[in-house]
Write a structure and sequence with these properties.
With 426 residues, the chain is an alpha+beta fold. The protein has two domains: 212 residues, UDP-n-acetylglucosamine1-carboxyvinyl-transferase, Chain (Alpha-beta prism), CATH 3.65.10.10; 205 residues, Enolpyruvate transferase domain (UDP-n-acetylglucosamine1-carboxyvinyl-transferase, Chain, Alpha-beta prism), CATH 3.65.10.10. Helices cover 31% and strands 27% of the residues. It contains 14 helices and 25 strands. The strands form seven sheets. It has a four-stranded mixed beta sheet with strand order 22-23-2-24. Helix 1 packs parallel to helix 2 and helix 1 packs parallel to helix 4. The longest helix has 14 residues. It is globular. The model has no long low-confidence stretch (mean pLDDT 94). Bound molecules: uridine-diphosphate-N-acetylglucosamine (UD1).
Length: 426
Amino acid sequence: MSNCIGKYLIHSGHKIDGELTVQSAKNSFLPILAACLISDGEVVLHKVPNIIDVDYMTKIVENLGVKIVKYNDDLLVDSRHANTYEISSILTKEIRSSIFLLGAVLARFRQVKISYPGGCDIGNRPIDLHIKGLKALNVKVTEKHGYIICDGENMKPNTIHLDFPSVGATENLMMVATKINGITKIVNPAKEPEIVDLQNFLNASGCKISGAGTSVIYIEGVDKTNGCEYTPIPDRIATGTYIIATAMTGGKLLLKNTYPEHIESLISKLKLAGCDVSIKDNEIFTKANGRMKSIQNIDTQPYPGFPTDLQSQVMSLQTISDGVSIICENLFENRFKNAAELNKMGADIVIRDRMAIIKGVNKLYGADVQAHDLRGGAALVLAGLVAEGVTTVSGIHHIYRGYENFENNLTSLGLDIKKIEENTTF
Ligand code: UD1
């Protein structure tokens, strides 16, 4: 695998003009790849996003004995040879999504040993809800030397009330319950489109799940599952990022392969700000001209509220919008690291605890800035695309975790961004 530790060199002064086909959703693809362990046949996943997190997840799953072959944009996954329930700690440190293996491996082997997961440094990311849910299913959980060890020999169905609709906890509990005889109910689950996608994938593999996307999910355990072919949903966060890029640079952009209903929370706000967004089937056309009005209040919330994964990008937009904006980050406490970087570029952002107060300025200026996480990295690129002079963004390996072809896509739309490369292997 190759890990890019280069930086981006960005010149402003260009408007977006063109069209893009949006990649598959990272946050669907990763749990689905883990869920392949539940399938008793060969799975073919179409439109695999070409991103580093998928490389990591593929490696972790292969280490469990699963055979994976990449063929063009498809991944052929055969879990019938999986032979261990111990998940290598070296790779799980790199990727938060390795936590999905907790549910998938437990469903497959009725036991699992996994180290605490890594991923973006966007705050304290506890897994207490995952563990509480597993215990409610009569899984014996021990935590020792940084490992979580689960014994599911005596798993039983139950009704689990989640205190908070955690995406990861909902996905893990759905996966475990597929192999518990009887009906498990998850009350107050996450309602994100990626949860519905996981349900659809598991059902295509022979599981019996209903209710994803609503306030209660029902999972009826099955003894046998099957292989299937599946295409994950389009990435709503990549979709939103490119739309915000258009609102910032001006110009026009046609996005293909989108589910517009998945980012209504963003589209409704951008329309109020003066951006012209129109929808036809699975396409979104965005047109922007001149300075946007500020969006006064942005509160990140579980779906269908405003996504935390678009908070950094919308903050970049607010720095150059007309007026004052207040962003409240309710999900991840460390997700304001970009504010200091944007202030280096001339932005006027004040942080008070979980609140950012942003006074729109007339202009940003190019500077050397540092990406601290995936979405924050993309947001700094957006700022660089409109900042007078030259901007360099370091730490772009974060961006490669989730955005396919990021700089090539932006270049194809007429923007000026180059990668200065330094490669290492891992
Ligand atoms: C997933 C997404 C991530 C997105 C997030 C929220 C993937 C791979 N990642 O992350 O991109 O930003 O949803 O939409 O799908 N929490 C607890 N205890 C737990 C679990 C979560 O307190 O056991 C808290 C977290 O600290 C956070 C909130 O719940 O404040 C949301 O976390 P969660 O929904 O679990 O996010 P992830 O699944 O980690």
